[in-house]
Write a structure and sequence with these properties.
- This protein is of the alpha/beta class and 293 residues long.
- The protein folds into 2 domains: 188 residues, 3-Layer(aba) Sandwich (Rossmann fold), CATH 3.40.50.720; 85 residues, Alpha-Beta Complex (UDP-galactose 4-epimerase, domain 1).
- It is built from 11 helices and 12 strands.
- The strands form 3 sheets. Strands 3-2-1-4-5-6-10 form a 7-stranded parallel beta sheet, with helices on both faces. A 3-stranded mixed beta sheet has the order 7-9-11.
- The longest helix has 22 residues.
- It is globular, with a radius of gyration of 18 Å.
- The relative contact order is 0.14.
Length: 293
């Protein structure tokens, strides 16, 4: 299958590209810079120059492909306005990719986030949030799943708060970066809130399985660790960096503060049973031992 992928040179995307190539697929990778294009080529993909704002490029890429995987996001968390612009840009891109696939029965896999449900681990049947700082992303994903009624084999792979590889990535990676800058390995609240996690190489396998197998209109959880206490995550970061571990105000994390403070464990039992997905790579706490002082 020829697969058009956005975000194909990032932490998750590079793993997905390698997984697809290893299983006989070919990859067309959106590349917004010369550096990204070179990385895509080095990884075995055919680069297509453009960014998420280049809607004509996205449409042409989708029309050339037998399936689409969307992973790209601006990841600008510098403030509410920047985050809103990133969400708006992604929403237009997601809609454009979907419109190119209507009536084709081709697979369209989008990245999403695991929801948080008070008092328990979320499951694949729970709805994603459509309000709050990233609610626009949830609404876009729901729109993609609705394309199942318009001849698109659409599905969503819901990612946990941290997708990691070699000690970096996701919310834990943000905690590490802030700790380096501030001199404190911090956490919001009392630190007992739980974050789910998955190794990027395990997540890549699930994206491939969704592309190949997922029925239209379905959601799946790429969760290996159901929920690590944020205080435990911060403790490993602090030990590796030789920094004190302390609670900090949620405002430290800008527009993501409310999410950083939320308890949000998630289960992947249904995904593992149904698609035969089995995470095999190191857990988050083990992988954080790779952080270099």
């Amino acid at each position: 299958m020829r697969v058009f992928i956005t975000g194909g040179t990032g932490l998750i995307g590079s793993a997905v590209t390698a997984e697809l190539l290893a299983h006989g697929h070919t990859v067309l990778a959106l590349a917004r810079s010369d550096t990204s294009a070179a990385a895509a080529s080095a990884g075995g993909a055919e680069p297509i120059r453009g960014g998420l704002a280049d809607l004509d490029v996205l449409r042409a890429g989708a029309e050339r492909a037998d399936g689409v995987i969307h992973l790209a996001f601006a990841n600008d968390f510098s403030g509410p306005d920047a985050l809103a612009r990133a969400v708006s840009e992604e929403n237009a891109a997601v809609a454009t990719l979907g419109s190119a696939l209507v009536g084709s029965d081709r697979p369209y896999v989008v990245v999403s986030g695991t929801p948080w449900i008070p008092g328990r681990a979320s499951t694949e049947s729970d709805p994603v949030p459509t309000d709050g700082p990233v609610g626009g992303r949830g609404r876009a994903v729901m729109g993609v799943l609705d394309l199942a009624s318009r001849g698109v084999r659409s599905s969503a792979v819901r990612m946990p708060r941290t997708v990691h590889n070699n000690g970096d990535g996701g919310f834990a990676g943000l905690l590490t970066g802030i700790a380096r800058q501030s001199g404190v390995s911090g956490y919001a609240g009392d630190g007992t809130q739980r974050w789910p996690a998955v190794h990027a190489l395990d997540a890549a396998v699930l994206f491939r399985l969704a592309l190949e197998q997922a029925p239209a209109g379905t959601s799946w959880h790429a969760v290996a660790d159901e929920g690590d206490a944020v205080r435990d995550i911060a403790a490993v970061i602090g030990r590796r960096l030789g920094l004190p571990v302390e609670p900090v105000p949620a405002e430290t994390y800008g527009p993501l503060g409310p999410i950083f403070a939320a308890d949000q464990p998630a289960s992947s039992a249904y995904t593992q049973e149904t698609l035969g997905w089995k995470p095999v790579h190191p857990s988050l706490l083990d992988d954080l031992e790779n952080i270099q002082p």
